[in-house]
Amino acid sequence: MSNPSLLILAGDGIGPEVMAEVKKIIGWYGDKRALKFDVSEDLVGGCAYDVHGKPLADETMAKAQEVDAVLLGAVGGPQYDNLDFSVKPERGLLRLRKEMDLYANLRPAQCFDALADFSSLKKDVVAGLDIMIVRELTSGVYFGEPRGIFTEGNERVGINTQRYTESEIARVARSAFELARRRGNKVCSMEKANVMESGVLWREVVQKVHDEEYPDVQLSHMYADAGAMQLTRWPKQFDVIVTDNLFGDLLSDLAAMLTGSLGMLPSASLGAPMANGRPKALYEPVHGSAPDIAGQGKANPIACILSFAMALRYSFDQGAEADRLEKAVEKVLADGLRTADLMGPEGGSPVSTSAMGDAVVAALDASL
Ligand code: IPM
Ligand code: MG
Question: How close is the Cα of 54 to the center of ligand 1, in Å?
Fold first, then answer.
């Protein structure tokens, strides 16, 4: 049997730096665990625009459709800020999500013990936190039509459209219920049914999928604004949160900071199963390209490394190896290693991106 295939799209800013550390980990699995991947690499985002005049070449899109999993670093940078909307770096990422139909975006927020003091919230609020945000990723206001900036009378009007079909809501709800069954068996669905029709439909459909297919899972509903408040008040009340594309974007950044740093948070974007039974999948850190620190060896590679752990778990049925990698990260943090983003106001001496990656590899070695 051939090796599973991975397409690496490191992207812009700190993307290539953090991905270099993931490549060390991929190499380690090949050497030490006989877990070999056929790795290819290509461009996405601003670096693709520089070469092709668009943020994702059609050939790259086609490759992404064929591989077992895509690993993405980050896209964007200030030099691309004034580009036309249709060729901005972010459009490359959005095209991948849409054309691969990666409707379920899993964004876990876990607080590592070693970092509990580092959160801006009190330690007892975040210690031991382990929640999963399931964000709908291929519809809603990110993609709804009509959209654009139009002229009405003597002024312009900016329009985006929030749009959800019943089947789009139902499929992401199923992803959330399935995950909940393997975790704490609780789902909280968040929308704004008090002001938006799409929220009314969202709530109805999630409830129906629950009643008909997952009555054993505990389901609650919350308005998304109240959800944001509850997430900062007592986040441990949640297990799985399911929400739409835009609310999920906001709530997952909020959840990320509960854990101490955006530099820690991985994500998996999953679609329907392919012919080989694996879901279409793209794995990426939740953080962006951080152009202000790019190229300085300051970036935290952990979010990207943990994204590869999610690939091991969700694409390659290697749950035990995913656990091993997550434990290695935990050990390195417990040993006191910190990249600059994990330094408190009192400072200290941060380790570089590559030193952090090397330490994770050493911890993997020690796990054998
Ligand atoms: C994210 C990012 C993206 C989004 C951007 C880069 C398009 O913020 O993945 O959360 O808004 O979805
Ligand atoms: Mg975001």
Answer: 18
